[in-house]
């Protein structure tokens, strides 16, 4: 808790953004952080609510001890707050930036639509801790002599590798891409999270003894069996990259793409990687239609504006959330937040209950528009409601259908779950193959960074326990 009467005296306040007209001129972060004294005030709003739902399973998958660090910040003990926060979350500067904050949804003050600004306080603690030099490598006192391979360096792989190294194991991370971070680096744009945050953690982990091997596509360039033979345990954290199929007439016209190649290329460009030899997938000077209503679609909207799109229309098959329909401003509502980011406020036209019926194209084979229709609650088109949106670029951001099966998973031949994800037990993280574990999106399907961190931590604990017969790693 913070100040007993804080929630009665202090209004909820969140960081402001640079105006849309300014922020779309660059790809960097654009949040204007609160001043330290303002953050202390926000922490003071945390009340002694008896049962703090914010750090239960639905509020915070990593079980951050939110009332405790709010109290520490309120009492100006930032260093202890940072220690507490890091005891449950390896990378609070990631989640402080990009988590949709289910903790705020769970906050008791959300009954009045003014939850504690938990995410803002989390980011402030994490940023201050790094800036002040309090975040140091934690080199294990003893080595176990065990060797563990982690495949994939997204948030699940990174969290697991860090925990395993701190338990004294010799940890090797194998990553297909030239840099670490997974979707944090190549999916999520810099305007949501700049990549030096990942670089900082990679340096910390290297100092803790983790070895990163880049450009290794396990199951393609290096057989998984080689890594199984060389390591005492193998954790698969390869994400869920398979795009959901686009079953719409006209989807083969030039200018129709999946969202990920578009986002990945821009992230690589911003990150200084050479993309000059590739087909340039750009929204500059184009009418863009983004199909989809989640995080990936929002990121396509923001990226399109920054590349210089003329107009961006977002098609969401779901109905308009009541909060938007009634023009209520009772933010944040988690369900709405999951569908709306700062990107829509940069000038996107949003069409709700909008089904994508057909992609239209010209004789040269290039897309010219999207034929849409309003859909009912069962997502069936309503006769007579058809309309056409002009388009030179159409981006499909309609979700993922589990992990890629070619390569690593087909070589492994382990059981999949009903949704096509790699099956691994919820508690032991074991797959059906001996000494092979799985965590993150590869196991649970497309999800959130905070869930990936949780699964990475828990899988590390399970592996440590299996290797050593006991574990001191936290849950
Ligand atoms: P990933 O991050 O996908 O990492 C998997 C890694 O494994 C990759 O680096 C990949 O290269 C590597 N790999 C795969 N196969 C192999 C192989 N055979 N050999 C070697 N390496 C391999 N979540 C949020 O909480 N907030 C957001 O704002 C948010 N925005 C998002 C925006 C977009 C565009 C997308 C696509 C997702 C977003 N998410 C967001 C979801 C979040 O990014 C994922 O849930 C999370 O990154 C999953 O982590 P992971 O470690 O399981 O997998």
Automatic annotation (TrEMBL):
Residue span, Dihydroprymidine dehydrogenase domain = 24-133
EC annotation from Swiss-Prot or TrEMBL: 1.4.1.13
Any Pfam family: Fer4_20
Q: Which residues form the FAD/NAD(P)-binding domain?
A: 147-456
Q: Which GO terms describe its molecular function?
A: glutamate synthase (NADPH) activity; iron-sulfur cluster binding; oxidoreductase activity, acting on the CH-NH2 group of donors, NAD or NADP as acceptor
Q: Which UniProt keywords apply?
A: Amino-acid biosynthesis, Glutamate biosynthesis, Oxidoreductase
Q: In which pathway does it act?
A: Amino-acid biosynthesis
One GO biological-process annotation of the entry reads: glutamate biosynthetic process
Would you say which domain of life the source belongs to? Bacteria
The cross-references to Gene3D superfamilies, in alphabetical order and at most eight, read: Alpha-helical ferredoxin, FAD/NAD(P)-binding domain
Its recorded name reads Glutamate synthase [NADPH] small chain
**Taxonomic lineage of this organism?**
Bacteria, Pseudomonadati, Pseudomonadota, Alphaproteobacteria, Hyphomicrobiales
């Amino acid at each position: 808790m913070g100040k007993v009467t804080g929630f009665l005296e202090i209004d909820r306040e969140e960081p402001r953004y640079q105006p849309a007209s300014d922020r779309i001129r660059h790809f960097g972060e654009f949040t204007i952080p609160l001043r330290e004294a303002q953050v202390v005030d926000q922490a003071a709003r945390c009340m002694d609510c008896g049962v703090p739902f914010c750090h239960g399973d639905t509020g915070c998958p990593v079980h951050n001890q939110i009332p405790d660090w709010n109290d520490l910040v309120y009492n100006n003990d930032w260093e202890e707050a940072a220690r507490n926060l890091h005891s449950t979350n390896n990378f609070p500067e990631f989640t402080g930036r990009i988590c949709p904050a289910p903790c705020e949804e769970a906050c008791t003050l959300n009954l009045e639509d003014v939850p504690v600004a938990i995410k803002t306080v989390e980011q402030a603690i994490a940023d201050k801790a790094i800036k002040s030099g309090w975040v140091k490598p934690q080199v294990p006192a003893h080595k176990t002599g065990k060797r563990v391979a982690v495949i994939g360096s997204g948030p699940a792989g990174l969290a697991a590798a860090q925990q395993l190294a701190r338990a004294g194991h010799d940890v090797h991370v194998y990553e297909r891409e030239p840099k670490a971070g997974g979707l944090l680096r190549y999916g999520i744009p810099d305007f949501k999270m700049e990549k030096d945050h990942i670089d900082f953690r990679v340096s910390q982990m290297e100092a803790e003894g983790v070895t990163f091997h880049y450009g290794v596509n396990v199951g393609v360039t290096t057989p998984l069996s080689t890594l199984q033979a060389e390591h005492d345990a193998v954790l698969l954290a390869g994400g869920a990259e398979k795009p959901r199929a686009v079953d719409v007439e006209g989807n083969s016209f030039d200018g129709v793409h999946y969202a990920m190649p578009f986002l990945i290329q821009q992230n690589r460009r911003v990150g200084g990687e050479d993309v000059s030899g590739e087909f340039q997938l750009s929204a500059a000077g184009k009418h863009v239609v983004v199909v989809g209503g989640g995080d990936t679609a929002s990121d396509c909207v923001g990226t399109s504006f920054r590349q210089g799109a003329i107009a961006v229309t977002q098609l969401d098959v779901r109905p308009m959330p009541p909060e938007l329909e009634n023009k209520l401003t009772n933010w944040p509502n988690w369900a709405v937040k999951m569908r709306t980011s700062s990107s829509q406020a940069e000038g996107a036209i949003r069409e709700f209950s909008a089904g994508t019926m057909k992609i239209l194209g010209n004789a040269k084979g290039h897309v010219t528009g999207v034929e849409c229709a309003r859909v009912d609650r069962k997502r069936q088109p309503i006769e007579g409601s058809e309309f056409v949106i002009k388009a030179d670029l159409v981006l499909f951001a309609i979700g993922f259908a589990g992990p890629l099966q070619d390569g690593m998973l087909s070589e492994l031949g382990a059981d999949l779950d009903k949704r096509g994800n790699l099956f691994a037990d919820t508690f032991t993280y074991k797959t059906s193959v001996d000494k092979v574990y799985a965590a993150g999106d590869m196991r649970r399907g497309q999800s959130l960074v905070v869930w990936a961190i949780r699964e990475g931590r828990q899988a590390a604990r399970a592996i440590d326990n299996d290797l050593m017969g006991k574990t001191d790693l936290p849950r």
